[in-house]
Amino acid sequence: QAKRQGRNTWRRYAGGDGAEPGENVSLRRDLQEAISNDQLSLHYQPVVDATSGELRSIEALVRWHHPERGTLSPGVFIPLAEQTGQIIEIGQWILRRACSDMMALQGQGVQPIPVAVNISPLQFARPSFVANLAQVLAETGLPAHLLELELTEGVLMADADGAIASLKALRELGVHAAIDDFGTGFSSLSYLRYLPINKVKLDRSFISDMMDSRGSAAIVQGVITMAHHLSLEVVAEGIETEAQWQALRGRDCDLLQGYLFAHPMPLAQLVEKAGLSSAAS
Ligand code: C2E
Ligand code: MG
Ligand code: MG
Ligand code: MG
């Protein structure tokens, strides 16, 4: 299982833009200063209703504005931060910032909108995670039902019972949970019925393949049907074409996310583009 985690980390690392392996040491050192020097920021990407295309929620995606290397993608630095343990501090910053961003929006008179935050398996496995989260909600004032956590199948690997207990505690708080990148892990589908979650997010790889591959299309349909039987909503990630949108709508997918609708962007830009501020009056 450790091997699987390692391979996944490597794949994400190698697939990202930016650093070569030899640069890791300096990046790690720089990451130490990223938080204190205000180099991290959150971009937000819309999730839309599959039928109407209307905005339903947003996902927070972290960016690192490196003083020399420019903007680095999380695919590069999150795995590094996981290796060094810095992910705990960074993850805490992300959670707090996402919650306070949403409260700032509400302060501007924007209609409350649910926000999804990605959580590293290491962060989720901490015994203090749920208590910490409750404290962030209390301090920022964000209602729990407006927060959704995105977790990968990796959270179940080290300690499935512990993860399920934490998910139950989250549900009691009123926080929602989604399984991200669904279908990419090797876990059995049957574990889904034990998980107190609300959503699955179908990985982008199935979406990009489904138009050409009957196998991928069958998996997409199978996941949607199964998830609905378990009363879970399905989000399809990485929608880039009209044809994909129509295909997923035809397959009864609930929610969509992808460049076809919007790229991740700074919050102020999203408010403007989505015409959210006009909802105030
Ligand atoms: P993810 O959570 O599955 O996020 C979706 C990724 O797909 C994002 O990349 C997003 O920009 C990208 N994407 C969205 N629509 C499309 C599309 O139509 N086509 C293509 N090709 N890509 C699309 P990003 O922001 O680079 O994030 C990559 C991964 O890094 C995330 O995958 C997530 O696993 C991780 N990550 C991002 N932000 C955070 C964070 O705040 N905390 C943690 N722990 N991980 C994060
Ligand atoms: Mg995600
Ligand atoms: Mg995903
Ligand atoms: Mg993905």
Could you give the count of β-strands?
9
Which outline best applies? Answer: globular
Major sheet: size, sense and barrel closure?
A: 8 strands, mixed, barrel
What's the SSE pattern?
HHEEEHHEHHEHHEEHHEHEH
Name the helicity range. Answer: 40-55%
Strand order in space, largest sheet:
1-2-4-5-6-7-8-9
The number of helical runs is 12
Would you kindly provide a written description of the structure presented here, covering whatever features stand out?
The protein is α/β, with parallel strands linked by helices and 281 residues long. The chain is built from twelve helices and nine strands. The protein has an eight-stranded mixed barrel, surrounded by four helices. β1 (40-49) and β2 form a beta hairpin. α1 (2-15) packs antiparallel against α3, α2 (24-36) crosses α3 (74-84) and α4 packs parallel to α6. The radius of gyration is 18 Å and the shape is globular. It binds ligand C2E and magnesium ion (3 copies). This is cyclic-guanylate-specific phosphodiesterase. Residues 24-278 form the EAL domain.
